[in-house]
Specification:
Chain B: One of its GO terms (molecular function) is DNA binding. Chain B: This is RNA polymerase, sigma-24 subunit, ECF subfamily. Chain B: Belongs to the sigma-70 factor family. ECF subfamily. The complex is a heterodimer of chains A (about 90) and B (about 220). Chain A has about 90 residues and is mainly alpha-helical. Chain A has one domain. Chain A is built from 4 helices and no strands. The radius of gyration of chain A is 24 Å and the shape is elongated. Chain B has about 220 residues and is mainly alpha-helical. Chain B is built from 10 helices and 2 strands, in the order E-E-H-H-H-H-H-H-H-H-H-H. Chain B has helices at about 15-20, 25-35, 40-60, 65-80, 90-110, 115-120, 145-155, 160-170, 175-180, 185-215, and strands spanning about 1-5, 10. Chain B has a two-stranded antiparallel sheet with strand order 1-2. Chain B is globular. The chains are: A mainly alpha (about 90), B mainly alpha (about 220). The interface of A and B includes residues 57, 64, 66 and 87 of A.
């Protein structure tokens, strides 16, 4: 299948295309895509860059886990209630 | 495709976001009651979503005081607009979108509206990531914890931070981000890439500084 053929490009071309490649790559796993195996094998610097950027994206996804959420100050709810009360009084 | 969300039938237009924002027990009932002016039900909605909304604001703004103000604004807006929620997406998706729009509006009011956002979200040359991929420093994998990443994200230039938080953390697609930020899809992709490069740079600097700090102790 042509989709799995290793692409022939220089490291500079690869780096220039990286934003688009990440956008196209499902779950941003360029390192596991056979089309880029050769360029990554032959360019350790590109391989490290890709691995780091994939790692950053992976860690970022984990920030959405509920245990990583931050609690606002307890006073915030009182402020919201006061504002709602003010709104209500204006309408009355 | 239609799915049942806590007793409501809704169209599953964005399955990815439903996966990321699954329905919460008791939420649908609280929404219906809050729509009818039930203060306790609104308080429940606040309790269910305050952490998520505040964290989103904090990550987008990188500032505790502004994040609290925007969280307050988001819940006041929610109270006023709750009647218009029709269940076409998960409630949390709807609320987060509402929050994102409010934060972006706030940022535009602060000055970003004067020039095209496409230009203003580009940081100065000093803040831009270096295009130096030549040095072979140790890679990051396995060495960055959540706190380090959160800190690094907070130090990103605002434009990079917005795109990174919206795409990599919140899971919005580039076309959605382009719509929100009024920029091109290509610009969103390029900003995200620069944001990740900048984060890599910050995280590697922090890692290199760490042994020196340890030694100083």
């Amino acid at each position: 299948m042509t989709e799995n053929v290793e692409l022939n490009m220089t490291s500079e071309e690869f780096l220039n295309q990286l934003p688009e490649l990440f956008a196209k790559s499902s779950d941003s796993r360029i390192s596991e895509d056979p089309r880029y195996a050769r360029i990554l094998r032959e360019n350790p610097t590109c391989a490290e860059l890709v691995r780091d950027l994939e790692y950053i994206a992976e860690q970022a996804r984990m920030l959405l886990e509920p245990e990583n959420e931050i609690e606002p100050s307890p006073e915030l709810w009182s402020k919201i209630q006061n504002s709602l009360e003010t709104d209500k009084n204006k309408l009355d | 495709m239609q799915v049942q969300v806590q007793g409501m039938t809704t169209t599953n237009a964005t399955p990815g976001l439903f996966k990321r924002n699954p329905p919460i027990a008791g939420e649908a009932e609280a929404i219906e009651k809050a729509k009818n002016g039930d203060a306790d039900a609104f308080s429940k909605l606040y309790a269910l979503h305050k952490r998520r909304v505040y964290t989103l604001c904090l990550r987008m703004l990188g500032n505790v005081s502004e994040a609290e103000d925007m969280t307050q604004e988001a819940f006041l807006h929610l109270y006023r607009k709750l009647g218009s929620f029709r269940g076409e997406s998960a409630f949390s998706t709807w609320l987060h979108r509402l929050t994102v729009n409010l934060v972006l509006m706030h940022l535009r009011k602060k000055g970003l509206q004067l020039v095209s956002l496409e230009e203003t979200i580009n940081p100065s040359e000093e803040d831009a990531p270096k295009r130096d991929f030549g040095s072979r420093d140790p890679h990051l994998s396995g060495s960055v914890d959540r706190v380090a990443l959160e800190r690094a994200v907070a130090t990103l230039p605002p434009g990079y931070r917005l795109v990174f938080v919206l795409h990599d953390v919140e899971g919005f697609e580039h076309n959605e981000i382009a719509g929100m930020l009024e920029c091109s899809t290509g610009n969103s992709k390029s900003q995200l890439h620069k944001a990740r490069l900048k984060l890599r740079e910050i995280l590697r600097q922090n890692e290199q500084a760490m042994p020196k700090q340890e030694a100083a102790k």
